[in-house]
Q: What sequence folds into this?
């Protein structure tokens, strides 16, 4: 994504390889952008493409709810558990629709269960940096596009990723701050039974998935990769444990819902302050509604960045009470 070109940007070189750009006469929700000139992502792209690279990233106020990565061997019940969550809490959780080169199963819909795609197209999109992670799984290519995660996050829901262990490892290494959950079967025999009873794979594919399951079960237990391991023996019991775990994670990370959605202030210029606090001077918004004319932007805890959005911006209103005394309130 690129910001619309216009005259009158205010810019500020930050010490983390980015330039902060505030667009003049734009609403608060759409005026803060970062031009990355020397971040790890840009460095990697430079190497990959053998040319000079810069990357745009839109700044988002407040932190998004942490995505949930659910992993485990094929047939363990990840999809079943995720479907239950989405059915019970449709406005709270959203599914990250992956891309895959495997053929659709009966009843699977393009754009709902997966984005079914050609290998060459997917490989090009991977080269173009559109994927957060990708892996070759059971002979096909699977991957999570940045767009898939952002579409869910931008809708205000908590994003759920159903990905294999290699994918989970890549997400762990990325800038995405997520919670990682590994689902185990009660036994290998039970896993085999579930996979066969689902009857979606040929015998040859079942054998391949079972062979891969052994390695995934070992990897899943490797230290530092997953935050939680759940055994899906009785479905209802496992589902209740999953819900409890997510609820306690949500409480621990009190969701920071930005209240700026409808705030139509128009930033006219900015002024830098030490310790990563920047003052945004705003004009009237043309609606006749009174809004503060001075905001403070705190960029000390930025997260993410190109090729996705830059989150963790904190914005405060600054109200002058009398000479030299201001009241500061977080939005
Ligand atoms: N706790 C459970 N007890 C018995 N059967 C279960 C349980 N959980 C899921 N199943 C069944 O096991 C089969 C596999 O489940 P599911 O498709 O959800 O697995 P999955 O982990 O998403 O597999 P894949 O990785 O291949 O997509 C389904 O037929 C499902 O109904
Ligand atoms: N690394 C990724 N793995 C993914 C993704 N989407 C799904 N998967 C995993 O693939 C297997 C097989 O899925 P199936 O639908 O063919 O049964 C399963 O373990 C999924 O978790 C992805 O985007 N990235």
A:
């Amino acid at each position: 994504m690129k910001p619309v070109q216009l005259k009158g940007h205010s810019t500020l070189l930050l010490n983390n390889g980015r330039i902060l750009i505030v667009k003049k006469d734009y609403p608060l929700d759409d005026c803060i952008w970062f031009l990355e000139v020397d971040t790890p992502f840009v460095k990697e792209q430079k190497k990959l493409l053998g040319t000079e690279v810069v990357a745009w990233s839109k700044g988002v106020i407040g932190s998004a709810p942490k995505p949930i990565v659910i992993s485990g061997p094929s047939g363990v019940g990840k999809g079943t558990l995720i479907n239950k969550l989405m059915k019970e809490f449709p406005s709270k959780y959203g599914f990250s629709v992956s891309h895959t080169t495997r053929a659709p199963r009966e009843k699977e819909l393009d754009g709902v269960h997966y984005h079914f795609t050609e290998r060459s197209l997917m490989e090009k999109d991977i080269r173009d940096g559109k994927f957060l992670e990708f892996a070759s799984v059971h002979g096909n290519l699977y991957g999570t596009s940045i767009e898939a995660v952002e579409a869910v996050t931008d809708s205000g829901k908590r994003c759920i990723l159903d990905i294999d262990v290699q994918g989970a490892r890549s997400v762990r290494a990325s800038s995405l701050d997520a919670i990682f959950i590994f689902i185990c079967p009660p036994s290998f025999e039970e896993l085999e039974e579930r996979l066969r009873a689902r009857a979606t794979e040929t015998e040859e594919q079942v054998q391949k998935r079972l062979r891969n399951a052994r390695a995934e079960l070992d990897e899943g237990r490797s230290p530092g990769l997953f935050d939680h391991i759940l055994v899906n023996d009785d479905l209802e019991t496992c589902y209740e444990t999953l819900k409890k775990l997510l609820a306690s994670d949500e409480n621990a990370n009190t969701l920071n819902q930005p209240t700026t959605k409808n705030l139509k202030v128009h930033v006219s210029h900015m002024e830098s302050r030490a310790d990563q606090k920047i003052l945004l001077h705003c004009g009237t918004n043309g609606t006749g509604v009174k809004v503060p004319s001075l905001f403070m932007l705190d960029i000390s805890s930025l997260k993410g960045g190109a090729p996705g959005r830059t989150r963790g911006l904190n914005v405060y209103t600054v109200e002058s009470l009398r000479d030299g005394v201001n009241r500061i309130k977080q939005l």
Summary: The helical segments are 40-49, 78-88, 119-127, 146-154, 165-173, 188-198, 203-220, 235-252. The pocket of adenosine-5'-triphosphate (ligand 1) is lined by residues 72, 74-80, 194, 197-198, 232, 235 (CB under 6 Å).
